[in-house]
Structures are given as structure tokens and as C-alpha cells.
Design goal:
Strand content: under 5%
Oligomer: single chain
CATH architecture: Up-down Bundle
CATH superfamily: MFS general substrate transporter like domains
Number of strands: 0
CATH class: Mainly Alpha
Helix content: over 70%
Number of domains: 1
Order of helices and strands: HHHHHHHHHHHHHH
Largest sheet: none
Length: about 375
């Protein structure tokens, strides 16, 4: 990608490289982890519980590491340390497949793996300075990494046993560590700017509303992130097709990221957020009732451009506005823990029970209702 005035003067490719490999690991975990767990004998309830445990570490870990980073600086040192311990912890998956052992391994792994991204988001935004609207020009490489991983592994698992997945994930973890060593430390220190106290910021109605919206938005995605691959496989789709579906969604996300820096300058953030929520309602409806139509499933995946791409870019901008100065790290950590942590974790846990008790259709119908509620909250309380 050609550098422009928004990205010159910063370590563009080193920042982009971290995003690439971090989201490549996510591209290995999200579509295929549930299939791996099913292959070693776990049912939907256990898969939902293990997924909730992994995601649930995002509730606590980012906030602890965010507090440390905002008070002591040295964000890249924290990221490197967390990346190393996460990689070492994940080796535990190779030893045994008992539920309680995997649960313990995922707690330790998730605590350190989930420490990295919020601090790296803060580092990237610090690099960009006044050009923070160009964030998506760097973050897009995370989406490229996700696509590359999903698509490549779809082909691999069409011919080889999915038992290879843990070793593949472990390899990507060590690549994350290697790339983190290339990002300069000086850009990661905290900003000595005037700022409100965290408590004062969290009492603002628009901040409360935003965090609730983020929580509910990701909760509505839980049936998708946890069970979409299983849903497709149970309806006779191949693992190659499953990988293609995940990749199509993220390709749509990439396209949006390439243009979001312009949209954000000309369209109200509230309007963009409402657009993403409306798209979520339609997307879950299509997945609920048209699971046997490959064409409509493909169209539904294109909505990922809005339900994640537009949503995430907009939420990041709002968090950046509300949490200033030395609160940036904790602001990004709070966004991560509330949405991708608490929202996805609780959603995954509930989805597992609903999937087992009422079936897939009820899961996606529930996601539709949650998205509708989130749309109403945004319409009423988000002002920007």
C-alpha cells in the first residue's frame, strides 16, 4: 500500500506487521477452534464454555495491563512480554485434551494474549497524533492477516486433519512476538497531557451509553464467532466453503477500512454507528432463515463490512475522543474488555446453552433482538 501524508514519518510497516500476525492468529482461532474442539469430543455446551473462558479473560486482562501502561509507560515492553508468555502458555494445548486442563491453559493464554492488542491500539494512535482518522490505513493489515489465515487454513483442513490447528496457532504466536520486537519503544510511552480522572469520564452519560452499545453489539456476534462454522458444517458445507465465507466477510471489512478515514471526516459518528447496527439486524436475519442458500449467505457475509468494519472504526474514534491523555491506554483496554471481553464472553456462554437447548435458529433470533435493542440505545443516547 502506498504511503501518504497521514502515514509518513511513522513505522508504518512495523505497526501493520503486528496487526497482520495478531489477526492471523484470530483467523486461525475464530473459524476453526470450535471445529477442533468438536473433533476431540466436546459438545456445544462445552465449546461455548471454553470459548467464553478464552474471551472472558478480556474482561480483566486489558484493564490490568492498561493501568500498568498508563502509569509506567513502556507499552511495547508490556506487549513483548505478554506475547512471549502467551506463546509459551499455549503450548499447554499440545499436552492433553481434558476440559479442565484446556480451561486452565486458556485462562493463562488469554490473560496475556488479550493484553497486547489494546496497548498496541494506543501505540498506533499515539504514532498518528492529529491524523488519528488514518488509523484504518494501518489496521486494515490486520484484516488482511485474518483473510490470509482463514483462507489458507480452509484449504489445509480440506486435506489434512484439524488436529494440526494448535501447532499452527502456536507458530503464529511466535511470529507475533518477533514482529513486536521491531516496533520502537519510544512511541509507546504514556502521554503527559492534561486529562480527566477515569471515574469522571465513566460517569458521563454518553460514555456509559457507548460502553453498553459496545457490550451488546459484541454479544449479538457471539453465535457467529462461536458457532458459525459448526452451523455451516451441520448443513453440509465443506471446510473450504466455511473458510471462504469467513474470508469474504473480512474482505468486505478491508474495503471499508480503506475508505473509513474519509467517511469519518464527513459523516457523523452516530450515523455510522446506527448504520452498522441496522446491518447487524439484517445480517442475523439472513443467517437465521437462509442457511441453505449459499448466495444469501455470501450477501450476509458482505454485511461484515458494516457490523465490524464501520462499527469498530467508529467505536475506536469515540473512545479516543472520550479517553484522552494518559487515559488512552485504559480507554482502549476498557473498550476491549467490555465489548470483545464481557460482551462476547457472556454471549458465547448463553449461546452454548441456547444452541444445545433450543437450536441454532433461536441463537440468531436472539442476536437480532439484541441488535435491535442496541440500535434503540444508540438512537436515544449517543450524541456525537
Amino acid at each position: 500500500m502506498k504511503l501518504d501524508r497521514h502515514t509518513q514519518g511513522i513505522p508504518y510497516w512495523r505497526l501493520s506487521g503486528f496487526y497482520f500476525f495478531y489477526f492471523a492468529s484470530l483467523g486461525a482461532i475464530l473459524p476453526y477452534w470450535s471445529l477442533y474442539l468438536k473433533s476431540i469430543g466436546f459438545n456445544a455446551t462445552s465449546i461455548g464454555q471454553l470459548t467464553a473462558i478464552l474471551i472472558g479473560t478480556k474482561i480483566i486482562a486489558p484493564n490490568i495491563w492498561g493501568w500498568i501502561a498508563d502509569h509506567h509507560g513502556h507499552r511495547m515492553q508490556i506487549i513483548r512480554y505478554a506475547s512471549l508468555v502467551a506463546a509459551l502458555a499455549f503450548t499447554g494445548v499440545l499436552f492433553t485434551v481434558s476440559f479442565f486442563w484446556l480451561a486452565m491453559v486458556l485462562v493463562v493464554f488469554g490473560f496475556f494474549w488479550n493484553a497486547s492488542l489494546p496497548q498496541f491500539e494506543a501505540t498506533t494512535l499515539t504514532h498518528l497524533g492529529d491524523s488519528f482518522h488514518a488509523y484504518t490505513r494501518i489496521r486494515v493489515w490486520g484484516s488482511v492477516g485474518f483473510i490470509t489465515s482463514v483462507w489458507a487454513l480452509g484449504g489445509v483442513f480440506a486435506h489434512y486433519d484439524i488436529a494440526l490447528l494448535p501447532a499452527i496457532i502456536l507458530g503464529i504466536m511466535f511470529l507475533i512476538l518477533l514482529v513486536s520486537l521491531t516496533v520502537p519503544e519510544q512511541a509507546a510511552g504514556h502521554l503527559p497531557l492534561e486529562h480527566n480522572s477515569l471515574t469522571r469520564v465513566l460517569k458521563r452519560p454518553e460514555v456509559i451509553a457507548l460502553l453498553l452499545v459496545c457490550f451488546l453489539m459484541q454479544a449479538s456476534h457471539a453465535p457467529y464467532y462461536t458457532f458459525y462454522s459448526l452451523y455451516l458444517e451441520e448443513h453440509g458445507y465443506s471446510r473450504t466453503f466455511i473458510g471462504e465465507m469467513w474470508a469474504i466477510g473480512v474482505i468486505a471489512e478491508v474495503v471499508v477500512f480503506l475508505f473509513m478515514h474519509r467517511l469519518i471526516l464527513h459523516v457523523r459518528l452516530k450515523t455510522l454507528l446506527l448504520l452498522s447496527l441496522a446491518a447487524a439486524i439484517v445480517r442475523w436475519y439472513m443467517i437465521s432463515y437462509f442457511i441453505d442458500s449459499a448466495i444469501l449467505l455470501t450477501i450476509a457475509q458482505l454485511f461484515h463490512a458494516a457490523t465490524f468494519g464501520v462499527y469498530h472504526a467508529t467505536a475506536i474514534q469515540l473512545i479516543h475522543r472520550y479517553f484522552t491523555g494518559r487515559l488512552q491506554g485504559r480507554g482502549q483496554a476498557l473498550y476491549s474488555s467490555v465489548s470483545f471481553g464481557a460482551g462476547l464472553s457472556l454471549g458465547s456462554l448463553i449461546s452454548g446453552y441456547v444452541w444445545e437447548g433450543l437450536g441454532p435458529l433461536a441463537c440468531y433470533q436472539g442476536a437480532m433482538l439484541v441488535s435491535l435493542l442496541t440500535f434503540c440505545i444508540t438512537w436515544r443516547w449517543i450524541k456525537t
